[in-house]
Specification:
By secondary structure, the protein is of the alpha/beta class. It has eight helices and nine strands. The strands form three sheets. Strands 3-4-7-8-9 form a five-stranded mixed β-sheet, with helices on both faces. It has a two-stranded parallel ribbon with strand order 1-2. The protein has a two-stranded antiparallel sheet with strand order 5-6. Helix 4 links the parallel strand 3 and strand 4. Helix 4 runs parallel beside helix 5. The relative contact order is 0.13. The mean pLDDT is about 90. It binds NADP nicotinamide-adenine-dinucleotide phosphate. NADP nicotinamide-adenine-dinucleotide phosphate binds next to helix 4. NADP nicotinamide-adenine-dinucleotide phosphate (NAP) binds next to helix 4.
Length: about 220
């Protein structure tokens, strides 16, 4: 997911530094695919970016945030879902929820950073197609207005429709949604490009002109 998002930024003309435990491997992939980006250790990438995309597996996220060095003032776009593969099934199991979320934990581990949760229920394959003609909705949430505004602008530049899902604590609702999307993609035949959500305000939809009695709604 981190590579897909970074590659999309490069396509749009932004300067990108990929942070990895194996920067040489990522540099080789970039060279092979003609992606003009820098690579470095996670700490180098964190120091380089004004905006940091955090796309780590949940189990390693705390360590990766702590290894990143100072994140004070940085905007972190997190797509991290606190999930693990449940044993004996193709499903995802949420490791935390109800009273916190991955995004809130990340904000607690990097208290000077401005965390926005987004793209957590969008497959990397859809990011690879950006900018795309279908205005698919991408939800985001966060507590810092400037950071949220930037996230919305990025979502829009990628060809998606940004939808403000409220404060960071609403990541508690966004993260379980990813587990449902994974279930539909893997087990219900949708595939990574099959879940294309378009959320619209009722006021923006054509008025219903049918004769269905009101009680049916
Ligand atoms: N894949 C998607 O389409 C998608 C979509 C939405 C959200 N997400 C979320 O994005 C996050 C990353 O998902 P992914 O599918 O991109 O996962 P991934 O490719 O398996 O892993 C992402 C990165 O996590 C690091 N990592 C993996 N194992 C590690 C370990 N043992 N110790 C330290 N770092 C380790 C690796 O960085 P290095 O480069 O250092 O090896 C790896 O590139 C997850 O939280 C997932 O829920 C994924």
């Amino acid at each position: 997911m981190g590579y897909a998002l970074g590659r999309a930024f490069v396509r749009l003309g932004d300067r990108v530094c990929f942070g990895s435990r194996e920067p040489a491997r990522v540099a080789e992939t970039c060279r092979a695919e003609g992606i003009a980006a820098m690579t470095g250790a996670p700490r180098d990438a964190a120091a380089f970016g004004d905006v940091i995309v955090l796309a780590t597996v949940w189990q390693e996220t705390a360590a990766r945030v702590h290894a990143a060095g100072s994140l004070d003032g940085k905007i972190i776009l997190s797509c991290v879902n606190p999930t693990s593969q449940s044993e004996g099934s193709d499903g995802e199991r949420l490791e935390i929820g109800h009273s916190t979320s991955a995004a809130e934990q990340i904000a607690a581990w990097a208290p000077g950073a401005r965390v926005v949760e987004t793209f957590n229920a969008t497959y990397a394959e859809a990011i690879d197609m950006a900018p795309q003609p279908l205005r698919e909705t991408v939800l985001y949430c966060g507590d810092d207005r400037e950071a949220c505004g930037l996230a919305a602008a990025i979502i829009e530049r990628f060809g998606f429709d940004p939808l403000d899902a409220g404060p960071l604590r609403n990541a508690r609702y966004l993260e379980p949604l990813s587990a449902l999307v994974v279930h539909l993609v893997r087990n219900a035949g949708y595939g990574p490009l099959g879940i294309r959500q378009q959320w619209r305000r009722s006021a923006d939809l054509p008025r219903w002109r049918g004769e269905v009695p009101r009680a049916n709604f």
